[in-house]
Structure formats: C-alpha cells, structure tokens
From TrEMBL, chains A, B:
This is RNA methyltransferase. Belongs to the class IV-like SAM-binding methyltransferase superfamily. RNA methyltransferase TrmH family. SUPFAM superfamilies: alpha/beta knot, L30e-like. Gene3D superfamilies: 3.30.1330.30, 3.40.1280.10. It holds the Pfam family MRM3-like_sub_bind. Residues 102-236 form the tRNA/rRNA methyltransferase SpoU type domain. PANTHER family: RRNA METHYLTRANSFERASE 3, RRNA METHYLTRANSFERASE 3, MITOCHONDRIAL.
C-alpha cells in the first residue's frame, strides 16, 4: 500500500522544484523500471503491483519494493493509466562531459517529449553524452523519462552554459540550420558536436557563434521544417554511415 | 459567434463515426487553416478570432468565415488552448493510388500522432501517397491533422486492404524489420513501397508475405527500437540520397 506521505512525495516529484529539493526523480512504467537494474542509478523505492513484483522478483531483489494496486499507482502517476510500476530514484551528480567522440548539444529544446525522444535516438546511435542549455527541458521530468523508452540510463544529459561549453570545445561543431551544406555530402569528422536548436527559435546567435560547419537535411517536398528529434535522428544516421 | 448547433457539430467531428456520417473533418490551428488555401479541399466554414480574420482577410476571402472569441474556439476544440482558428472541411473522395514512384505503406499504425508525423516527413521528402491498413489511425482525426503541421494537404492517405494492394503492386516492397539489410548499403530502386509496421506488432505476416526486400536501420547503442515515424524519416532520407 502507498502511504499518504509516499503518495505526497510521488506527486511532488512531478514538479521540477520538488525534484531539485529532494534530489529524486520518478521512473514510471514497467519497461523503464526494469531498465534501472542495468544502470548504476540509486533506486530508493519501487512501487508496483503484486503481479509485477512476483514476475520480476529476482531483478528487483536489491530494491525496497512496495506493493500497490493498479488503482493506487494510477493515482500516484500524473502520466499513464495502467502503470504497473513507479520507482523513486536519486538524481545522480554528474560533471560536464569532456568534449570528445560524437556528442549532441541542444539549444533551447524545451519540450520534455522531444528531449526524451532525442535521448532514445542518441542511445540508438551509441551517443553517450548530450549537453543542453539551461533552458532546455529537465532530463528528469517524468515526460522526458517516459519518452526515452528505457534509454535514460545509457545517455547522460548535462544542462550547462552552452555557448561557453562550445567555445571551449576543441572539436568541430556541426550546427543544424535550414540553410547549410547537405548532410548527404558533408564529410563528418570522427569527433564532433551536433548542435540542434528548438523548432521555434532554431540555434540562437550565442551558440551559432561557435558553429564550425552549418549543415542541413535536404528537402524534396513542401514541408517547411522537421521536428527537432526527427532531424537529430536523420543527422545522426548520416554521421554513423561514415563513422561506425 | 459560434451557435449552439455549430458548437455541437465541431465537437461531434472529434469522433470518427461522426466524421464519417457528416463527411467532414476539422482543421485546427492557424498554420493548418492557412494551409487550406493552397489545397483543393472544400472548406465549409472557418471559425476564427477577429484578429485572425482581419490579418488573413485576402487569403480567406473565398470561405464562409465566422468570427468567434478565443474562449469560444477553445471550448469548441478538443485539442489546443489558444486556438485562433478552426475550419470545417469536406473529406475528399479519393481512389487508391496507382503503385508508382516512391510510396509509404503503413501496417497497423494506430496512433494518430505517429500518422501525422509520418505525413509530415513524407511531405518533407516529396512522397505524395501513403497507403495504410484499415486499422491504422484515421487520417482525418484532429490529432493526426495537427501533427502534420500543415502537410495534410500535400500527402494523400488512403486506407485500404493492404495485403491485397501490396500483392497487386508491381514495384519492390521494402519492409522495415529489426533484422534486414542495412539501409546504409541497400540499393533502392527508383520506384518502391516502404512498408512500416507498428511499434508493438511490427509488419504483420499478411503484409510481410509481399515484402521483396527486408531492410533495417543499423543500431550502434543500447536502444531496442525506434519510433515508427522516426524510422520512416531515417529510411526516406536513405532513399532520397540515392534518388532525388
């Protein structure tokens, strides 16, 4: 059973301010909760149905598990109905990653669903690090975590002073613009940072200043733009066909 | 002002059964409504704020326009707050497209947001026709239309007996599977059908039967799958780098 205080905490963690105050975030959904086992993240508690706990007893043996009904879990979650499992997890302390290998940088991408989808696509293409301007969506927003479809444990997202980070990086910065060199003919270097802007504002001037190569996804029809997560996926695919 | 009967109709058109009964669908949002001008779709009425109507008087001159407050429009819409314009549009009668050029076929893609995103990406890559199994999302669902970001008028989606269509097509059928030939090394023919299945079921056996080439997007990291719209975009980009 979920106690009143536990329910209060679970609901509070839907808010960024509360996540920061408690140093905790929520991982919702069966697949995401099971992914935790593969990570080094510190799990405080797992709330789940008796069915889920019985089925995954061995994977979850290291965690404090609290049995709850589907109804209780649905009430505790702001997100999904029929949510069989929710975990409360410590927000890890991470340092800004050293600029090396291939990375993704996000400038003002404020939609948590887009951020989560970008984390998922980064994981598909084996990108370990995303750096993001401080006004990007919170990587620990439950909507972000859900959209990662389990990839949140394999990709580190660091919010930081993006222009400064790009300035100090010694590797190429590929900026995605509506006008740039086609990704079909770009020679990507082995190491680099792919810089994506938001759909509404694009890459802003402060970050654009450090772009070494402007690139674009060639268009063949009438659509004016692509969703930022879609564009990230297509560009990463073009990079990976050159550097696997 | 929106009359009671008009409000009743607007709300009814959120439901598939009612859209079918009336032969009408909703186009919501400023950008989407303005896109109508570029299409041959028959617009019954445009409900919009006085600001919107004044600003776009010349584009909208051929339509019956009804002024409404933002509050009224928000009440009439199931989707968006701050919706400055909604149009009621006739569902066009379309025949199944002849299998030629490059096309997209969808098998059991039931999420309207995914369908709308696929319409948008089809439009980006200049694909005019999508054929879809009858259990796919309704192309006239307001959520589908919204996700197209204005591309709904340039891409025709036809729900039909998909296995039969694929059987009768005389062009290659490229089926997306988790195991297949890498799209990075596939030689795409000029004409073909890209067949995508749903995230939960993949391409089903009835449609798989007619696949001539199994293809896959190579993975480099830990994610198990990609969203169907994302995968469609990445594969279309690989096709277009060979045939522009």
């Amino acid at each position: 059973m979920i106690s009143k205080n536990q329910l209060k905490l679970l609901r509070a963690l839907g808010q960024k301010k509360q996540r920061k105050a408690h140093g905790l975030f929520l991982v919702e959904g069966e697949k995401n909760v099971l992914e935790l086992v593969e990570t080094s993240l510190k799990v405080k508690q797992v709330f789940a149905t008796s069915d889920f706990l019985a089925k995954h007893a061995s994977e979850l043996r290291a965690y404090e598990c609290i049995e709850a009904t589907l109804d209780e879990l649905t009430k505790a979650s702001s997100l999904v109905s029929n949510n069989a499992a929710v975990a409360v997890v410590e927000i890890p302390q991470t340092d800004a990653p050293e600029p090396k290998g291939m990375m993704i940088a996000l400038d003002g991408v404020s939609d948590p669903g887009n951020l989560g989808t970008i984390i998922r696509i980064a994981d598909w293409y084996g990108i370990k690090h995303i750096v993001a301007s401080t006004d990007c969506a919170d990587p620990y927003n439950p909507k972000t975590i859900r959209a990662t479809m389990g990839s949140f444990g394999r990709v580190q997202v660091t919010l930081l002073d993006l222009p400064r980070y790009l300035n100090e990086a010694k590797i190429p910065v590929y900026g995605a613009f509506l006008e740039g060199k086609s990704v079909h003919t770009t020679n990507f270097s082995q190491q680099g940072i792919l810089l994506m802007g938001s759909e509404s504002h694009g890459v802003r001037a402060e970050a654009e200043h450090y772009v070494t190569d402007k690139i674009t996804i060639p268009a063949f029809g009438g659509a004016e733009s692509l969703n930022v997560a879609m564009a990230t996926g297509i560009i990463m695919d073009n990079y990976r066909r050159q550097h696997s």
